[in-house]
Amino acid sequence: MLPTIAVLGRPNVGKSTLFNRLVGRKIAIVDDTPGVTRDRKEAETRIAGRAVRLLDTAGLEEAAPETIQGRMRASSEAAVRESDLVLFVVDVRTGLTPTDRAFAEWLRRQTVPVILVANKAEGRLGGYAAMEAYELGLGDPVAVSAEHGDGIGELHDAVREHL
Ligand code: GDP
Ligand code: MG
């Protein structure tokens, strides 16, 4: 069984963009799981030279705003249960939201190791904006731009320390 890494975070932070960036074009999506996690995608890829199974979580975009945290938790719990490592993604352009904070608080109570990924950190001010993510209490954020590819080498290095 390959080590499993889940990409978690509220809608629109760039989870799927990061998933695609880490998987690359040459690796096919191997599963689209039906059911509660019907939008979940998984793929096998290599990170830091190791073969891993990567999970992209989703399906929350359709949830009513007042229930989004509950829905996110249910879908994330399923992913966390089968994961050896979580990439928790936040968006440095919008900054931290109450949903990010609630999600982070829940994650801190789980036993799974978490790498905090500060996405959309491209450009001159990106690294600076990423520092707000320290507030989440999940350790040093890794500043990346999933869209542009910045910081992906550092993310591989961070993952290597956990595998
Ligand atoms: P998800 O809902 O978390 O899976 O987020 P998506 O991957 O669908 O991305 C949401 C939006 O953010 C899309 O419009 C992406 O193009 C955009 N996005 C993703 N990564 C980046 C990034 O690194 N920089 C910027 N500026 N936009 C990004
Ligand atoms: Mg997505």
UniProtKB/TrEMBL annotation:
GTP 1 binds at residues 9-16, 56-60, 119-122. Residues 3-163 form the EngA-type G domain. It comes from the Bacteria. Belongs to the TRAFAC class TrmE-Era-EngA-EngB-Septin-like GTPase superfamily. EngA (Der) GTPase family. GTPase that plays an essential role in the late steps of ribosome biogenesis. Associates with the 50S ribosomal subunit. This is GTPase Der. It comes from Paracraurococcus ruber. The chain holds residues 1 to 163 of 447 of the full protein.
